[in-house]
Amino acid sequence: MGGMLEMEAKRWTKFTIGSTYAVLAAFGLCTAVIDPLFHYHRPLSFLSYPLHNQRYQNDGILRHFDYDAIIIGTSMTENFKTSEFDRLWNVSSIKVPFNGGHYKEMDRAVRQGLKNNPNIKYVLRCLDYYFLDDKDTIRTDVEYPEYLYNDNLFDDVRYLLNKEIFLDFTKPVIGCTLDGKPSDSFDAYSNWNALHPFGKEAVFSSYSYSDILFPMENATQEDRERLKTNLEQNVLQTARAYPDVTFYFFFPPYSICEWERFFYSGQLVKMRELEEVVIEELLPYENIQLFGFLDCYDITCNLDNYKDTTHYGEWINSQILLWISRGEHQLTRDNYKDYLTSTREFYENYPYASLH
């Protein structure tokens, strides 16, 4: 009797283990075939793919999609529409924003795209005014799925046999396909325009106003050298490595309230001095075109364009594309000094008290 029970127990154990492996294999195979993060292949034409997680999906987009232009940057680029870029430049572009990303993360992504796609003609990228990151700084409050970023097949088990991946990414593809929904477009990907109110009330609710004026600081030599090192590693090396690619860089037009913050915190002069360093480092490169919009006072001083002190509506993204396509507001050796002088005078002397 004991022997029969022991045999039954062994059969049950084998069945349980076998069933578990079978279920895991089925889940893994489903994820591998559908590949919602595009780790192995481009989207399958008969499936509908939601795009909803930048740091999980962007690397696969850069590896496997068909494109010849890249739009990349922080949340300042999330409202760009690739359909507008495609029409203005006659290309097929992708948008791969990294919310809150630093210069190193942007450059790594750009290099991934350039490595995997020799047909790239243009890269459009913003250069945010928070310049003083170390060259190796990356965002620390978000999860990076490094198993997706490397080429090591052995750690793909963390992708294929991951319950969260199946529930959060694979299953929605199946659901959207069965519901007849189309795949998300790059126009809609990460676009938050319809999700927020804009205007003075929205902007003022997003920050605490302080009229305590701190002494104005200048950029130190250490600040300048740190910035140059950051630019060299995360901007210029890539531009030199791909001389046939045109890189469009732009300084995003933060609102007057953000410059108020810089003013009262004593950082405004430092920011403008560091902006000058960036301009002078980038201008010598023939395949780099640099644009600044701080002299567009009808934009920066109109809070109806903003949801907070820095984030502008999609109509500003559209205007930026149009200006860049026409070469308007481009910074050159002939005009950048005048641009820096006039905008610095404007933002240093603005009557900020009138905002309140």
Structural key phrases:
356 residues; 14 helices; alpha/beta; 6-stranded mixed sheet
Contiguous helical run count:
14
Class from secondary-structure proportions: alpha/beta
Q: Characterize the biggest β-sheet.
A: 6 strands, mixed
* Number of beta strands: 6
Q: SSE string, helix = H, strand = E? A: HHEHEHEHHHHHEHHEHHEH
Mean pLDDT: 92
Can you list the strand order of the major beta sheet?
A: 2-1-3-4-5-6
Helix content: 40-55%
What Rg is obtained from the alpha carbons, in whole angstroms?
24 Å
Shape from CA axes? globular
Sequence stretches where pLDDT stays below 50 over 5 or more residues: 12-22
User: How much of the polypeptide forms β-strand, as a percent range?
Assistant: 5-15%
Distance between the termini: 88 Å
Description:
This protein has 356 residues and is of the alpha/beta class. It is 48% helix and 8% strand. The protein is built from 14 helices and 6 strands. Strands 2-1-3-4-5-6 form a 6-stranded mixed β-sheet, with helices on both faces. α3 (82-89) packs parallel to α13. The longest helix has 33 residues, at 2-34. The termini are far apart. Residues 12-22 have low confidence and may be disordered.
